[in-house]
Amino acid sequence: MNISIPAYQNPVTGIYPLVLKEAKTLLTNPYLPMEAGYALNSDGMYHVAGHTYMKDVTGPMIDWWFGYVTNTDQYKQWHPKDHVFSSWSGPHGNSTYIGGNHLVHEYIGGQLTFLRIQFRDPATYFGENYKALFTAANVSTAVCARVGLWEGAEKGIQALDIGHVIHLVHNEFDGVRMRSRFWLGDMDAVKEPAQRATSIPPDLAPGLTKHTSEEMAILGTFLPDLYKREMAKGPKRRDAVEVLPWSVDDS
Hints:
7 helices; single chain; two-stranded antiparallel sheet; DAPG hydrolase PhiG domain-containing protein; Alpha-D-Glucose-1,6-Bisphosphate, Chain A, domain 4; hydrolase
């Protein structure tokens, strides 16, 4: 069973939502006061939290998935209702996605949104010693990215950066617990908290709270079998380099 903790009260009140510069707090506090929901933090960013238990899933499976999901059919499997289009620019395959750009169309809060998810090394948010910190916190991986409003295929990968995402994967006895965290409102040209707060569309934070909970619960239902099936195919060759299997081969 894959369980997402629902956000019963949105926006969450009476707490101090996590600010981006304190992301390391996730490693020393396995459960924070806000594990599901959204709220405006002191930096003027909307902090969105999702929390999903994924039975029989492992950290390596999560890394493999983000290096695998490329085309629209794969992307729609992740959320058949909200996901519309997917393409990729940059490194991917064989559990590789850092430095790549996932270019998508998806419905969030009922609005069709074009996004560029630009994947970053976890060191960006957790420091150069993040591997030791992950081991101490029983964390197997963290999928980290800068999120931007994509301007469409005619503009290449150009986007207006508006936020950040961290999917932190905790090991559990028969699966993993994914803590998804977003910070919305971090734009290079906007520094004042009050301006940040008003720059984000009003439906984005509540819509993202619902969407991320749903898509991660769905992912947990098919990822173990998909991973096993793809890995059983044996190595493929792409650009004269042997890599682990993945379903899209553009070579």
